[in-house]
Write a structure and sequence with these properties.
The chain contains six helices and five strands, in the order H-E-H-E-H-E-H-E-E-H-H. The protein has helices at 5-21, 35-46, 57-67, 89-100, 120-127, 132-175; strands at 24-30, 50-54, 80-85, 106-113, 116-119.
């Protein structure tokens, strides 16, 4: 299906907007893709506030070049879908990991995280990271650990003194 110049410009503008809004962009190859498979994949990605789109390779690489993203033209010769992670880059990578696990339809080729190119292995490593809420909890725990230890250290002499006074009062009560 041929597109007019105006339609191509609209498509390129849409690609620019998606890239500008994205924290990460991942690209996958596909073969024998059916609507049920892509709908299932899109549903999994929707949970991480990501979107999957089939792109026109030539138009998409034009936008990548314009934005200064490095790319290998050979990568963009086959059938590709692009995932735009608008909020949670590791969450989208986790969803992609689930989608591609045991799949003969999709295969992760690579991606971009803040305009830095990632290969498939790096996308997998990103998927293995804990989720954002878990990372925040770990950070908070790390920050609060020294404070709670300091409180315990400061309270220990008073606790020891209270134990001595209690033991002494019990001893005097027993002696009387």
């Amino acid at each position: 299906m041929a597109f007019t110049r105006q339609e191509k410009e609209q498509i390129v503008d849409q690609y620019r907007e998606w890239i500008d809004k994205s924290k990460a962009v991942y690209y996958l190859t596909y073969k024998k893709m059916t609507m049920s498979v892509i709908n299932e994949a899109r549903a999994k990605l929707r949970d991480s506030e990501s979107e999957m789109h089939v792109v026109k390779n030539r138009l998409f690489t034009r936008v990548l070049e314009e934005k200064g993203y490095p790319y290998d033209p050979k990568t963009w010769e086959g059938n590709n879908v692009v995932v735009f992670a608008f909020e949670d880059a590791p969450g989208a990578a986790k969803a992609l990991n689930e989608i591609t696990k045991g799949s003969d339809v999709f295969a992760v080729v690579g991606g971009y995280l803040d305009a830095v190119e990632l290969n498939a292995r790096q996308v997998k490593a990103l998927a293995d990271l804990p989720t954002l809420p878990v990372m925040r909890a770990m950070l908070l725990g790390t920050i609060l650990a020294p404070a709670s230890q300091l409180v315990c250290t400061l309270a220990e002499p008073a606790r020891g003194l209270a134990a001595v006074i209690k033991a002494n009062s019990e001893k005097q009560t027993n002696a009387a």
